[in-house]
Write a structure and sequence with these properties.
Mean pLDDT: 82
Radius of gyration: 19 Å
Strand content: under 5%
Oligomer: single chain
Low-confidence stretches: 139-172
Number of domains: 1
Number of helices: 10
Largest sheet: none
């Protein structure tokens, strides 16, 4: 029960990303904003820093600016541009806040480092929006609506490729696939079993969920799905190990931030893996 808020935040964030990815870019952007809000509210408390309200505002604003920027840009090269801008300005504002607090304040270094880490987490969450838009959403190919859920089963189709990323219709299911992998991995990571057993199972379950989703949809290839599944499982396994070593977070907001943080951070990996492996 002491880890329930952590598990609930991770599972709800993953499920919301999967559902909103079928509804379009702006619903997904709204969900990413809510994930950033969960991280922003609990991150300063988790880090044990002072000036929590102002730092939470900076962490939230940086994530929202990055997500909205990824949703409105019109060039592929600019999909992650606003994440870089938001990260730079967010870190700068964190330092300004520390200067304005005056000299002699306690835990100034911890506050600065902790807040900068929170800004990094929320700005990388924009990768979920960028991953949905790249490349189909950039050329007026729609908002990523219900047509993404195209079940093709295990039968082969034309123009398939082992190294490619798209199916015959050129449609992408990257966000939903990664979300399902995170869901499966998070469910296994919640098992009250020793780490020697549950950590490998977390990675394997996320990997299997990604491959199964790719086979079911037929939109993404096994290489791409496998890379995303392994990354999702490894990320969740690391956070599970961190929690076990550090103990449960003190406070519900902190626990929610811990649960939402790996889901947000996965966004950058989704987008850049798509850019690297897209054929």
């Amino acid at each position: 029960m002491k880890y329930l808020p952590v598990a609930a935040a991770a599972l709800l964030a993953s499920a919301a990303l999967a559902v909103s990815s079928w509804l379009g870019v702006w619903p997904l952007t709204a969900v990413v904003g809510m994930i950033c809000l969960m991280v922003a509210l609990g991150w300063p408390q988790l880090m044990g820093v002072t000036a929590r309200r102002s730092l939470s505002a900076v962490i939230l604003c940086a994530g929202v600016v990055a997500a909205v920027g990824a949703a409105i840009v019109e060039r592929v090269e600019s999909l992650f541009f606003w994440s870089s801008v938001a990260l730079a300005f967010g870190v700068m504002v964190v330092f300004i806040i520390q200067v304005l607090r005056g000299t002699g304040r306690p835990h100034r270094l911890e506050s600065t480092l902790g807040a900068c880490a929170g800004v990094l987490v929320t700005t990388t969450a924009a990768g979920w929006v960028a991953g949905l838009r790249y490349p189909a959403g950039m050329a007026g190919a729609g908002d990523g609506g219900l047509g993404l859920l195209r079940v093709r089963g295990l039968l082969p189709y034309e123009n398939g490729s082992v190294l490619g990323v798209t199916g015959p219709g050129g449609e992408l299911s990257v966000v939903a696939l990664a979300s399902f992998a995170l869901l499966a991995g998070a469910l296994v990571a919640c098992l009250p079993v020793r780490d020697a057993v549950v950590l490998p199972l977390t990675v394997l379950s996320a990997f299997a969920a990604a491959l199964g989703t790719a086979l079911f949809w037929g939109e993404l290839t096994l290489l791409f799905a496998g890379v995303l599944g392994l990354a999702a499982g490894a990320l969740l396994a690391c956070f599970r190990r961190f929690l076990v070593l550090q103990g449960p977070p003190a406070g519900r907001l902190s626990a929610m931030a811990v649960g939402a943080a790996p889901i947000a951070a996965m966004g950058a990996f989704v987008y850049f893996t798509e850019r690297l492996l897209f054929a």
